Fold this sequence. Notes:
11 helices
Amino acid sequence: xxxxxxxxxxxxxxxxxxxxxxxxWNHPGHPLYAQYSITDYLAAISSPSPLRGFIFVEVDRKxxxxxxxxxxxxxxxVSWLARxxxxxxxxxxxxxxxxQSLLLGIVPWAPLPSGMKLLSEYVGKAKxxxxxxxxxVKGFRYLLQDKARGVMLGEGFIEGLKWLGREGFTFDLGVxxxxxxxxxxEDAVQMLKLAYEGVSExxxxxxxxDHLCKPDLHTPSDEVAENPGFLAWxxxxxxLASFSTTYMKLSGLFAEMPAxxxxxxxxxxxxxxxxxxxxxxxxxxxxxxxxxxxSDWPVCNTGGGSNVKAWKGWRDVVDQLMDERxxxxxxxxxxxxxxxxxxxxxxxxxxx
Length: 352
């Protein structure tokens, strides 16, 4: 594989051992019940690496929509990211002064369903926690994959999305076709219609869609073309791509396919063959100008075998997918980092 001169990992999760019990999904016995910090991330990538930096995406801390008390752990996460950004680690946190140059952007949690007033209040508190690192906060996420139907279509949620657009923030959209159902994609399309209704182009919120909407990759590749789930997914991907301010992350797919062997090398050819129909459909609709590379580390480890090989294996899979599609070097560079920089408003690829 040719070395990429410019690579931004658009989807990375980090959490210290001291805060494991603040994660809504983590528990003793979970394969990710351990610290995952920058030193672990760099070990996953290995050296030499084409990496220029990454974007942190919130890790789904325990939270609810109750002002102040329900915001406690997401704000604790902002404080953790501020220590990374400012090069001021606490003992044992797994990051060092100098690592801050890798942190190109932060996407914290935010209470979108609460509407503009409370959302603005929360963002103000997050800004206080972030301090000097506030400029790194590029957008917010409120994970929708485990929420009840109707949440993303609520008046407060739509109001919140419009507020993010006016304030220049992005929104990471996390829905899940495989586990949650195709209705999540249906509602996401309707959500965007409502969020963009009556809004000028320059004030529309940029929506960055995570993990190809988590399709069901357990369908054999030779059966995909006529599979009802694939056809429904494809139709909604086309609708999501019809909005000019949406991007799609090419990320998170190891977790949606049959688990790979933790010992054997990643079978890149087999993985490419399995996911190619889905990835090709995404490229057909979003084009090389709106597809964004992301690793979904360390979640990629749970399906990609281990920390030793998952990140590098996913990079190799993406590289081969782009080769087989016949992308030019210019198009590849957009996917590897240019699109992430544009979508998230990162003016400098590498911070000093």
